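Backbone shape codes
____________________
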Amino acid sequence: MPHHHALRPPSALAALALSAFAALSGTSAHANPAAADSPSQADEIAHTVQDGDTLEGLAKAYLAAPRQWPLLQARNKVTNPRRLQPGSIIWIPVRLQPAESATVEFVHGAVTARANASDARAPVAKGNKLDEGTALQVGPDAFVSVRLADGTVVRVQAQSELQLRQLRRRGRAGSVQSVLEMRSGAVEASVPPSAEAFRRMEIRTPLAVTSVRGTRFSVALAESGQTTASVLNGSVAVQSRRDEGVGASASSASSSAQASAISMLAPGQGLAVATDGTVGAPRTLIAAPDTSGIPATLGDASILALNVPTQPGATAYVAQVAQDADFTQVLRHGSFADGQLRWKALDDGRYYVSVRAVDDAGIEGLPAVQPFTIKTRPVAPLHQLPAPGTTLATGAGELRCTSVPGVRWYRVQVATDAQFTALVKDEQRLSECRLPVTDLPAGRYFWRMASLLQIPDGQADQGPFAPSQAFTVADRPATLSAQSLRAQDGDTTVRLNWQGQPGQRFRLQLASANDAAFDKITLDTTLDRAEWTASDLPAGEYLVRIQVLDPSGLQSEFSPPRQIRVGSGISTGSGLPVSTSSGQPVGRP
């Protein structure tokens, strides 16, 4: 026995959009507009009666069992349940259909749920079941993925509110009916293809209804109230809600649904719905940004910094970092005025970044997805000596860097080019972070270093190389006479330098070598440049750690400490520093 929704046009996708909208806007005269936190109670499906239809047959097709037909009779005030007038409308309350639930697939950050308006919000965890009517609230820097009963995955972005307005099934084993209500923020959905003619999947905002079949698309609700939609795969129907009247009769609601135009979006298209409900014309999505310049491996433990070149027509960039290529496990999300993407640092691991340019209508463009790896541990030492660009005499000189507590070895490389394709030294298991360069001929060189941990099988786990620095080796000038020489204290000045991004400032803290927790800080200073010099420290060993202060307002965690040694300036006749029996430098008198 055939069953038909009201307003069924010839196009399957258009039918979905129209019938879905009619069902949502076809609120009965008995609906309670105040029931805003249980909107599914007011949703109804308009069924156009065909020859042979009975209330028992409709109950079997739409509800859980044929015996529920008296509920349809009461709603529609039908005199004879076995003789329905062809062409008339039978309203099917959605609340009478079998209920479904959704499952939380992934959570990051502060995400809470509330099943009813009277309930307190509770934290959401992976594996939680969410019932119809549940309202999700996603905090700043947070994210949640939810899987619906038909396999649709809904990714709810940071600072979003989304209600699972309707989670139902058409009959006991029929198609799934899902309606989501956005109150703020942005969502992205992947809807698996289905041959079921009556499956329903919609995302609603105060301005628009977005109806879909198998597709991948996104909907965003700006603070101004504007709604935008963009489609990557499949097709989407978008319809304005400006003609939708709260508490309107069923017949007038149907007329509004017929009168309001539907805009169809093909793959690679998007549109904007203005704050007055006007639906803009579909437009081609802006091209995907160029992510080829993003390094395959990142070694900065302070700030996650990725850069993409700006492109014509882009007014902003929206980017995400996820643990999976499908972006169901998003850890970082943000909107940026330019192609300089900045977030708090992530742990070591494999990640994916998705970047989309935003056009002048606020519509997000095509995404560029790039995999990358973060490898920051063990942290690299900091350069100590020589200072960048220093000239060393041939036959003398040493490269020196800080110690890193807890590491087993250090690797120091020297090359004649900044890309380190022409290595002249590669010492891989130094017990101290220092390397003599007395055998280097005159010329320009670059050097860098990394820390190595010893793993249980005896192998080495190397961290990232520090950014390279240049130095020059040159022949000495003529030797001065003995009468012109003066003794130098030596090693009483400490110099450190490291790599930083333009505009960044740095907070440096110093503590004694036996104060790994930095409980008693010797020095706490803010630096405008990525370098530090101190010449008035008492002789001894210290720990130094550095925090990055980014122009964006983000602050990194303090770096793992490095160890430095301040000399006394007192040396033996052969030039070696004088130490006590415990190995500490003798203090200056």
The helical segments are 12-25, 55-62, 69-76, 250-259. Residues 1-41, 245-259, 478-490, 572-576 have pLDDT under 50 and may be disordered. The CA atoms of residues 120 and 368 lie 40 Å apart.
